[in-house]
Amino acid sequence: MTAANEANLLERVPARLFIDGEWTDAAGGRTFAVRDPATGQVIREIADASPEDGIRALDAAVAAQDAWAATAPRTRSEILRRAFDLVQEHKEDLALLMTLEMGKPLAEARGEVGYGGEFLRWFSEEAVRIAGRYGLNPEGTGRMIVSQRPVGPSFFITPWNFPLAMATRKIAPALAAGCTVVIKPPELTPLTTLFFTQLLVEAGVPAGVVNVVTTTTSADVSGPIIADPRLRKLSFTGSTPVGRKLIAQAAEGVLRVSMELGGNAPFVVFDDADLDKAVDGAILAKFRNIGQACTAANRFIVHAAVAEEFTRRVTERVTAMPVGRGTEDGVQIGPLIDDKAVAKATELVADAVSRGARVLTGGNSIDGPGTFYQPTVVAGVPAGSAILSEEIFGPVLAIATFTDEDEAVRLANDTEYGLVSYVFTQDLARGHRMIDRLETGMMGLNVGVVSNAAAPFGGVKQSGVGREGGLEGIHEYLSTKYTLIPVD
Ligand code: NAD
């Protein structure tokens, strides 16, 4: 990967807002810098939207809504399918862009292009299958028609950790359902959304249907959009504290909301587990995306009888993980997103150690340039350690032990979060019991990654409301309408 390649790609990213089919400057021509977390260098200056720009974007989405809702489902489907094809054609550009602005290893960025792109294909297929029903009421006096209508103009706020997939997972179902969109990408990684928007235009998305506002003042720009009575839907992916605030703001207008929030996934290894699979699963569930995934395994809860062997084997693997800039061959651990993320990992490990946990490998930040933290294993983590209750969002694998199934369930459920859980056991009946007993929206049984465009992604408890992907995903953008026609 040459520096010239990188520079050429960055130059091809449109650096402006996208409103009503036009690339436009922010009011007052304000801009902000986007940095590469592996080097700390500025890689691009882009438009910094004001609240007025946000409302201009909503105006465009509102103006485009009726015509977009009236397009034939097949038309919307074919536009999404073309967008899927264009994402495949630009796979290398999109992957490199994500590595440059977010830091993930290039191989993983390519994986995200695959995963993120699938939402375009999946919802192109769902756009033509929006069904209703028809029947007589039980009294036989009325014909009941139940149909599905697009919810209307929708506002999306997305996080920095999966720059492409978090955008496609919202935009694809909304467009398939006939909704228009304003999206506010994350300030730390906005370039991928801007590049992807060009592809949507090339695929035939009409003016006003997708509008993009990049900004450093998220709350100021989002507030007036959410408060505007013309908005019908808010979909957010990000942290639980910000999600709570947004739900409160959305309550004023009684908006439909989808909230994909934080996680604190338990990774439970029983004494009857296949340890080869458990170790492979652990490495994936923990270190994918440098540990910066809402689905990242946060707490390893391992049966005392296998804890020593499991710990020895994961520690060997973690010690050998190459760390570096994500563009370098073979790198498995790139930088964390910023200094705050490094400080958080440092504090969580220090707190666990002060309570008696042992660092088996890693345990330190790495001097700059860039915001790196060593891949780390911490064992013997006692109850009450902050690392067990907070999202680590970094490459730190924390191990606690248990001795019976009830204790494992109690520990796994001992969190306000409920996004995903991972369970390793070869006992089929126990596996089924865990499906019933673990309070999470998703579960991996003997596997360390569950995400798939065809599956409903989402959490229970304070991990969120609603589902993205699967048959369920399009219903976040549809409202049910019931009509009664009397039988003469
Ligand atoms: P964050 O909550 O800080 O920010 C998310 C987005 O919200 C960003 O675009 C940010 O600019 C914006 N934002 C922040 N404060 C705002 C406010 N007051 N008003 C309006 N917008 C505001 O989260 P993050 O650090 O970008 O992402 C990491 C978090 O996201 C983690 O908690 C992770 O678990 C979660 N996440 C969840 C999922 C999921 O599907 N459940 C997926 C990815 C990430």
Which properties best describe this structure?
488 residues; alpha/beta; Aldehyde Dehydrogenase, Chain A, domain 2; binds nicotinamide-adenine-dinucleotide
Please provide a written account of the structure.
- By secondary structure, the protein is an alpha/beta fold.
- The protein has two domains: 3-261 and 463-483, Aldehyde Dehydrogenase, Chain A, domain 1 (3-Layer(aba) Sandwich); 265-452, Aldehyde Dehydrogenase, Chain A, domain 2, CATH 3.40.309.
- The chain is built from 15 helices and 22 strands.
- The protein has helices at residues 3-11, 51-69, 73-89, 91-102, 106-126, 165-177, 191-203, 218-227, 240-252, 275-287, 304-319, 339-354, 386-389, 405-413, 428-437; strands at 17-19, 22-24, 31-35, 42-47, 133-136, 142-150, 154-157, 181-184, 210-212, 233-237, 256-260, 265-269, 297-303, 358-361, 365-366, 372-373, 376-379, 396-402, 420-424, 442-445, 464-465, 478-486.
- Strand 3 and strand 4 (42-47) form a beta hairpin.
- It binds nicotinamide-adenine-dinucleotide (NAD).
